[in-house]
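G., before I forget:
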Amino acid sequence: MPRTGVAHPVADGPAAFDVYDTTLRDGAQQEGMNLSVADKLAIAPLLDDLGVGYIEGGWPGAIPKDTEFFARAAKELDLRHAVLAAFGATRKPGVRAFDDTQLRALLDSEAPVVTLVAKSDSRHVERALRTTGVENLAMVADSVRLLVGEGRRVVVDAEHFFDGFRHDPAYARDVVLAAVEAGAETVVLCDTNGGMLPAGIGEVVRDLRAALGTADALTRLGIHAHNDSGCAVANSIAAVEAGAVHLQGTVNGYGERTGNADLLATVANLELKTGRSVLVPPADRPGGLAEMTRIAHQISEVTNIAPFARQPYVGASAFAHKAGLHASAIRVDPDLYQHIDPQAVGNGMRMLVSEMAGRASIELKGRELGFDLAGQDEVLTRVTQRIKDAEAQGYTYDAADASFELLLAEEVSGTRPAYFRVESWRAIVERAGSRGTPATAEATVKLHAGGERIVATGEGNGPVNALDHALRLALQRVYPELAEFELIDFKVRILDAMHGTDAVTRVLIETTDGQTAWSTVGVGPNLIEASWEALTDSAIWGLRNRGVAPR
Amino acid sequence: MPRTGVAHPVADGPAAFDVYDTTLRDGAQQEGMNLSVADKLAIAPLLDDLGVGYIEGGWPGAIPKDTEFFARAAKELDLRHAVLAAFGATRKPGVRAFDDTQLRALLDSEAPVVTLVAKSDSRHVERALRTTGVENLAMVADSVRLLVGEGRRVVVDAEHFFDGFRHDPAYARDVVLAAVEAGAETVVLCDTNGGMLPAGIGEVVRDLRAALGTADALTRLGIHAHNDSGCAVANSIAAVEAGAVHLQGTVNGYGERTGNADLLATVANLELKTGRSVLVPPADRPGGLAEMTRIAHQISEVTNIAPFARQPYVGASAFAHKAGLHASAIRVDPDLYQHIDPQAVGNGMRMLVSEMAGRASIELKGRELGFDLAGQDEVLTRVTQRIKDAEAQGYTYDAADASFELLLAEEVSGTRPAYFRVESWRAIVERAGSRGTPATAEATVKLHAGGERIVATGEGNGPVNALDHALRLALQRVYPELAEFELIDFKVRILDAMHGTDAVTRVLIETTDGQTAWSTVGVGPNLIEASWEALTDSAIWGLRNRGVAPR
C-alpha cells in the first residue's frame, strides 16, 4: 500500500548503468492506449519492483493529466529505488529560459530528474522548428542551465540523432556538446523514426565518440530506440556495446507506430547474455528479472492491451514447445532446447500437444496433468493415434488442456466420467421483423443426471449463450457446484475456408470457477454442435477437477 | 483460378540470394495455429506474389496432411517463381539412406528442393540423437547423396548451429563440410533456440568461414533465426552482412515460442536499407514489397490469427501518428517523421487525430467504387461519421467492400435498394441423442418481394448454412439470378474475448456469381443475426451489381 508524504528516492547522480523507463510517457503514445492518472499510479510501483532506475511519468505543463500525476505521485507513491523523471522540451526560440512557462511547469513538478527533448538534426531545426542552428544550440544550453541551476538532474533526449548525425555530423555533435557543457548528466541518442539497423547504430555511436574527442570522457551517452525496422532491442544493445550507459525503453514495447524498444527483452538480454547487472530490484522481494513475467502481465492488465503471446521472455508462448521432433529430447535435457531457464524471468516451460507431437511429448504432458504414463506403451500409442485422428478432423489440443485431459483420463481408465447423459438439445434463433429488430435465442436441453430426467430452457443473446444457460440450469439441479462456473472466452475458427458454411468449425471455450480457468474444444460442420461439445466438456472437466463424483 | 496439371517453376540452382519461406512448416508450429491443406494451398500463391524463391510446404511422410499438400500442390498450384521445398530429417542412425522410409517419402513428394535438418551440436548428437559424432556425419552425407543422386536440390538446416559452434567448433564445421561435400547446395545455420544476439551471430559466421578455409569459397551459407531474444530480424541481417546468401523466415514472424524471424521485416530491411534486391515478384503485378501489407493481412485471414497492429512495416499502426509533438510538422514534411515511404510496402500513413485523412480516403475509396464525392462535403461528413460509429461497434470495411458500397450508395441516394422486405426468420439446431448422433439444422424465412409474401424453409449442416439456403430459396422465386450465387467463404471473429458468449461477433462472408466475388460484413452479439446481416447484404449487392432492378 502506498504511504503518504514519504520521501522519494533521490539519487545524487547516475548509476554506472541507468535503466530509464518511459512506458508512462512515450509508451502511452501507442494507438488505442489511454492511461489515466490512476493507471499511471498503478504502473509505477510495478516498474519499481522490476528495478528500473527512472520512471518517466509524463509531460507536466503540456498535458494536464501529467501535471496531476506528478502532484499525486509525490504524495501517494512510495518508490524504493526508481526516481521520477519529468519530460519536456527545450525553451521556445527567442524566449528567455526563465520566462518559458513550459520549463517552469517542469520545475513545478518537483521531479528530481528532468528530461528535455532537443533537436539534433539540422533539417528538423530548420523545417520543423523553423529557427537557426545557432539559436537551437542556445535553446539547449539555456534550458539545461536553468534546470541544473534549480538543482535538477538533467537528461537530454537528442531527437532524430541518428538521421541527423548522418546528414550533418558536426551539428549533431555540437548539440551533444552544448548539452554536456551546460550540465546535462546524460545525452540520449534517439532513433526517433526507428529505421536504424544495429550495425549503423554501433557505427554512429563510435563515430560520435571519436568526433567528441577529449569531451568523450566527460559525456554519458544513452539510447532511445523505436521498433520500425523490427530491430529496437538489437539497436539498443548495439548502442550499449558501443559505449552507451543509459537505456530507455517501455514495458512490453508499447509506443507509437511499432512501439519503443521493449525494455524487458533488452534488459533480460543485457543481464543474461552480456553479463551486465542493470536492474536494482527492491531488497524485500525477488524483483528484477525473476518477476518480469508477472510485472509484464500486470501492466498489461492496467493498460488493457492483450498480452502478445509470442513476446520474448514473458509471452505465454515464449517457452511453449510443440514440435514432436524435440519433445523426446526435451524430456532428457530441457537446457538443450531453451535459450535460458524460463524461471530466470518468472516464466515457465509448457508442452503443447499436437499431431506433430510424438509419444514423448504426450508422456510429458501427461506428467504435467498428473498421469504417470512412463512405460505404459499401449496407452501412449492409443492416445497418440487418437490425437492424430482428432487433429485431422480439426481438433487442436494445444489450446484446450481440459479436453486433452478428459481424453487422456478416458484412455487411461477406459471410460469418461458419467456426470450426465444427454437425451437431446435444441437451439432456436429468430427475428420477427426487419433490420433493426433484435433477434432472440432460446435453447432447451433434456438430460439425465442424479437419477432424474431434467428438462431446462435457457435464453441468451445468441444460440451458444442460450445453450450454455440451459445446460447450466439443467445440471445445477444435481450439481450445484456449477453455479460458480463462468464462460469467459469463446473463439470460433472456420477450418476449411474454401467451402463456405459447409466448412468445419472449431470452437474453443474458456471457463473459470473463480480459482482455475480451463479450455475445451469442440469441432464439427455445425457451429452450434461444436459449441455444445466444448460446453459439455467444460462442465465435466470442472466437476472432475473439483473432485465431485458423478451423482 | 488455379489450373490443373501445370508445370511448376523448377529453378536449376540457387539465385545470388535466396529468400526461403517456411511459414507453412516452421510457422505452423505456432501455438494455436493449425493449417489445413486448403489453408496451405491458399497461402502459397500469396508467397509467390511476394516474390520468395522457395516455399517450404511441410514434412511429407511424417505428417499425413503435408503428404497430401504436396500431392495436391503439384496439381492445383500455379506458382510463377517460387519453388516448393519439402522438409525432412537425415536418415536414422544405423539405417541405410536408401532404406529410410522417411527419406523415401521426401522423394515421393516430388518437391524439386529437399531441406534436411541435421544435428550440428555434438551435445545434441550424443544426448538427443543418442549416436556418435561419426555416425551423425555419415547420416548427413548419406542422406544428401541419396537425394542429390535422385536429382533433388538439397538444403541442409544445421540445427542448433550457433550453440554447437560455440561448444565444439570443429564438429560443427565438420557437419557443414559433410553436407557440402555430399552435394548440398546450401547449409543453413540455425539459431534453433533463438537466444543469440546480432554481434554473436556475425562473429560465429565469420569464425566458421575462417575455419572452413579453402572450402569457404564453395560453401553457400544461410540463416534461420528464432525470436527468443527479440533479435531475430537483426540476427538474420547480421548473418547476411557476414556472408549468408540464403534467408529463412516466416510471414508475420509466425512460429513456435516467440516465432521465427519475420520474413517481411527482414526482407524490407534488406531491400530498403542495405540496397540488396532479394525478392522476385511476378511480372504481371506489382508484387514484392509494394504488396507486402496486403499479403501479410491476407495470410493472417487464412491463419485466423489477428494481425499485430505494431508489426514493423505492415502493421495497422506502423505509420500511424498520434496527436502532439509531431502532428503539425508531419503535415509539412512527412519524410522527416517516417523511416520509409509507407507506400513502398503497400501501407499508408494515418493521422490518428485528423478528420481530413478519413474524408480523403473515403473520397478515394468512393472513386474506386464509382462514386464521385469530390466537393460533396455533406455526404463525406455523413459517411465518415457513420463509418466511425460502425467501426466502434465492431464493423470493418477493409475486408467487406460490398457492404461499404451499399453504405455509400445509401448515403448518396438516401435509400437502400428495396429488393425485399423481411418479415421474420428463424433457425433451429437440434440433436436428439447423445454424443455421436448428428445434429440437424433448419431455417425458415418469411419475406415480401415481387408483390408476394414468400415463406421458405432450408436445411443445412449448421444454422447459417440453413439460413443461406432458406433465403436463397425464398428470393429465387422473384430473382432467379440468385441461383448462380454461391457462398465461398465464411469467417467468424469474436471481438471482445473477455465477456465469453456475451461478446460481439463479426461475420465476414464472401460470395461469388462465377464472375465476381464480393464480401459483406455483419456484426452483433448474436452470431446468427450477424450472419443474417452479411447474407442479406450479399444478396442485395449481387443483384445490384448485375443491374437487376427491385421487383
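Residues 527-545 of chain A form the longest helix (19 residues). The mean pLDDT of chain A is 89.

More on Monday.
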